[in-house]
Design goal:
69% of the residues lie in helices and 0% in strands. The chain has helices spanning 2-7, 14-17, 21-43, 48-51, 56-63, 71-87.
């Protein structure tokens, strides 16, 4: 996720050519939140393949295309990740 969703940049896409520091922070924070929640779920017995198939991961991949001035989308994505991972059977 760090390499593909955070570091990878598409110079031909106006939304991805330049990203503010605030948006980079929000995206990295979202990725790290998934990591922490997934690590906890894994320790509680959730299979790795289940953690890698949640819908929110696709949303993280597209999050870098969110508008610069819309931090609410990142907050909603973090909530979706937490809710999804929290609801997985242990």
């Amino acid at each position: 996720m760090i390499r593909e969703d955070f570091l990878h940049q598409n110079a031909f896409d106006d939304r991805d050519t330049y990203t503010s520091l605030q948006k980079q922070h929000r995206l990295l924070n979202t990725i790290l939140r998934y990591y922490e929640d997934a690590k906890k779920a894994l320790k509680e017995g959730v299979p790795l393949d289940t953690l890698l198939k949640i819908e929110a991961l696709g949303d993280v991949a597209h999050a870098k295309l969110h508008p610069e001035n819309n931090p609410e989308q990142f907050a909603a994505l973090v909530k979706k990740i937490s809710d999804t991972l929290g609801a997985l059977p242990r």
